[in-house]
C-alpha cells in the first residue's frame, strides 16, 4: 500500500489544531483503505499551546509525528523539515488554518495515480484577502513568471502534491535562503493544476503582514534571478550617457553662446540624483552579497529540539 505524507507547518495554531485534523480525517476517510497516511506536524517555535494540543492528539491515538523546532525558523524551514522527514511515496504540504481545503487531496491523489509527478493547487477566489494583498500577490506572480528561469504558475502556493522523485530532487537543494515556491518548481517536473477557493482562516490571524510579504518577495526574486543586478548595470549606463549628454550641452551653451553655467540648484539636483542611483545599486548588490554571507556560514536550515 502506498504511503502519503501530509506535511503541516504550524506556528501559533493552537485554536486550529483540532478543527484541522477533524476536517482532514473526514476528507480522507474514503481513501483510508487505499493509502497509509503519514501526518507530519512541524511546530515552528510556537509561543502558544500548539505543541500541547498536538501531543494531546497523539496521546488520544492519532498517528502523527511531531517535529518540534528549538525556535522559530520560519515557514520555509518548516516545509524543508517536513520534506526531510517525510517517508511517503507522495508528499502534500498544507496549512493548518483550513485555507487550503483538505477535500482537494482526493483529487490530487487521483491525478497523481494517472502519472502526474506534481499536482499544483491554484487559488481562484481570494475575496477574503485585502485588496492590497491581492494586488501585491498578482503583481509578484506576473513579475516572477517574467524573470524566473522556470515557469511559475500564477496564484499557486505551497499547497500541492509532489511525487517521491520530486521530493528527493528538492531535498538536494540545501541553500540557506529558501523561497519554497521557487524551489518546488525548479526541478522542472511536469505538473497539472487544479483550482480551489480560498476560505477565511478558521481561527487566528496570519503572521504574514504586508511588509513581511514584501521582504519575502524580494528574497524570492533575488534567490531565482540576477535581473536586479543587470538592471542596476543598465541604469548606471543610462545615467552615464545622460550625464555625458548634459555635460556636452552645458559646454556648448557656455563656450559657443557665452551663457553662464547654471548654479547651485541644478548642481544639487544632479548630485542627489546620482547619489540616489548609487545607493539603489549598492542596495541591490548588498542583497546578493548578503545571500553569499548566509551561504558561506553554512549554518543548518533548522534545529530540531524534539521528535514525538
TrEMBL record:
Protein name: Glycosyltransferase involved in cell wall bisynthesis
Gene3D superfamilies noted in UniProt: Spore Coat Polysaccharide Biosynthesis Protein SpsA, Chain A
GO MF assignments: glycosyltransferase activity
UniProt record, GO biological process: lipopolysaccharide biosynthetic process
Organism: Lampropedia hyalina DSM 16112
Keyword Transmembrane: yes
Occurrences of domain Glycosyltransferase 2-like (ranges): 5-169
InterPro entries for the chain: Glyco_trans_2-like (IPR001173), Glycosyltransferase_2 (IPR050256), Nucleotide-diphossugar_trans (IPR029044)
The keyword Transmembrane is assigned to this record: yes
GO cellular component, one term: plasma membrane
